[in-house]
């Protein structure tokens, strides 16, 4: 009988870029909205607010890119070091590694005889891949991707930051804070629901989480803007 792989549509494969995209977009929306609302609360002019917002967008996007690149590069360095160690052990201690793989398979419910046979077959097929997966929980061909994480984070941050910046730029002086706050909360709601659906998580909890963070951030920066604006004035 010929065996074929049954596709079940699991979401594990999108975890890396989804985390970077959600983190970047959420950070872009919340940090930029908080920045422009705080400056607006200090009674600054619209051009000054837009300048501050643009500076925050560019600086934040670059910061996210660098941060993600460094973080994910460190993760990849660890993965590659572990794989190199496995290569050396397979080269220098093949029998020991075979026994270790056999034991690992028995911990998953296989009998000793079945585990021993499976370990031999897995070693002949792809020794490094078998040990990397069973011992380290990683696949040699699916290591962390620093550049992907950096680009996704930067683009997501810029897109998220553009929304509150556009809202405050197109609003009148009397309505700019309210419209920006409303646009930000709406964006966070959509973002939270989208990320929850992609990740298969409860939508309500994800939305509440991002909304709460956004409200707190905008409220605090608005209070700071009012206080410092009044003091300067």
Largest sheet: none
Tally of helical runs: 7
Helix content class: over 70%
Judged by helices, strands and strand pairing, the structural class is mainly alpha
Please state the CA-atom Rg, rounded to the nearest Å: 25 Å
Beta-strand percentage? under 5%
**Structural shape:** elongated
Query: Could you give the distance between the termini?
Result: 82 Å
Low-confidence segments, given as residue ranges, are 5-14
Name its key features.
0% strand, 233 residues, mainly alpha, single chain
Q: Mind explaining what this structure looks like?
A:
The protein is mainly alpha-helical and about 230 residues long. The protein has a domain of about 150 residues. About 5% of the residues have low confidence.
Task: Give a short summary of the structure.
The chain is mainly α and 233 residues long. It has helices spanning 15-41, 46-92, 94-106, 112-136, 146-169, 176-199, 203-232. The longest helix has 47 residues, at 46-92.
How are the SSEs placed, and which strands pair?
Elements: H1 15-41, H2 46-92, H3 94-106, H4 112-136, H5 146-169, H6 176-199, H7 203-232
């Amino acid at each position: 009988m010929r065996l074929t792989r049954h596709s079940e549509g699991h979401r594990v494969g999108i975890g890396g870029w989804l985390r970077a995209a959600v983190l970047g977009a959420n950070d872009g929306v919340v940090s930029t909205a908080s920045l422009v609302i705080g400056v607006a609360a200090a009674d600054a002019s619209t051009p000054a607010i837009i300048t501050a917002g643009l500076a925050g967008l560019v600086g934040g996007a670059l910061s996210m890119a660098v941060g993600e690149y460094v973080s994910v590069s460190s993760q990849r360095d660890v993965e590659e070091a572990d794989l190199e160690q496995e290569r050396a052990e397979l080269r220098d201690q093949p029998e020991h590694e075979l026994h270790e793989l056999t034991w690992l398979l028995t911990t998953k419910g296989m009998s000793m005889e079945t585990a021993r046979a499976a370990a031999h077959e897995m070693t002949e097929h792809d020794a490094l891949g078998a040990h990397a997966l069973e011992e380290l929980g990683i696949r040699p061909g699916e290591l962390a991707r620093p550049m992907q994480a950096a680009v996704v984070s930067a683009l997501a941050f810029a897109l998220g930051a553009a929304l509150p910046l556009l809202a405050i730029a197109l609003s009148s002086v009397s309505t700019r804070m309210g419209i920006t706050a409303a646009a930000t909360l709406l964006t966070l709601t959509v973002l939270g629901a989208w990320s929850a659906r992609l990740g298969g998580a409860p939508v309500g909890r994800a939305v509440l989480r991002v909304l709460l963070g956004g409200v707190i951030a905008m409220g605090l920066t608005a209070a700071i803007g009012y206080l410092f604006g009044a003091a300067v004035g």
